[in-house]
Amino acid sequence: MFKNFVNSRLFSSYFAYRSLASLGLILVFALLHRFIVYLVARSEADPVTKYRARKFSAYLLTFTAFILIFLLWSTSSGQFITVVGLASAGLAVALKDLIVDLMGWIFIMVRKPFTLGDRIEVNGVKGDVVDLRSFQFSLLEVGNWVSADQSTGRVAHIPNRYVFTHHIINYNNGFGFVWNEIPVLITFESNWRKAKKILEEIAQKVSLHFSEEAEKALRKRMAKFMIFYKHLNPKVYTSVQDSGVLLTIRYLCKPRTRRGTEEEIWEMVLGAFEKEPDIDLAYPTYRIYQPERTDD
Q1: pTM of the entire structure?
Q2: Which among 39, 197, 230, 233 is least buried, having the fewest CB atoms inside 10 angstroms?
Q3: 164 and 202 assigned to the same domain
């Protein structure tokens, strides 16, 4: 009995000492991280450099603290190892989602399906990646009730495990450009050939420099992705709708310039059509037919 009592007291002292030492290490590293964040905030570096410095500090200090705590407990007795093993097994079951989130973070860091600043869409949420953490990443939402993929101001926090269970659409990881389309509907009585020529000239002016950049970017990306476009120049397609002739402008633009280029094109279109008396924009109209009344 006395031997069991001594062993239990020794184990309790051993456990208490190392527990207090572990808490002390965590506190020291937490204060050190806050001090580094303070120094980074006072520096004159750009926001992206500050963000990366804070993240690197957090990862490095966390890893160092983990190693020191592991070494602190590495001389543990068999009883303690048994307890820790059982506790770890229980935590692995209870915290399986967090473990998968951590694996997702490693996958994001290594494979880089997206990186900081990319515009992505996952599980119906679209936005710009503004933060990458061990268990979640954050998006500055775009779209939703706001037109043309502009920011709503909301931040969406998404678990890292979604990279394994959901489709991720990256707007930047292809070759940095997206195809945008602008439908222009004119009346059947309009000179659609002239209108189409005007639209082609306007689209060419707006997207010329984008096509040159896209061609250079495409050459670089062809080694990584099976992306093949025969033509990168803008094009106007013709079709017929119930209310008139539909001329659809298709052109390349950068993901964040879609609304700006669309506004520029529409202003040029309205200005050009205003000078042409034989071109009119179409809109829904109603005709009411009333038969003539005959008196008996």
Answers
A1: 0.60
A2: 230
A3: no
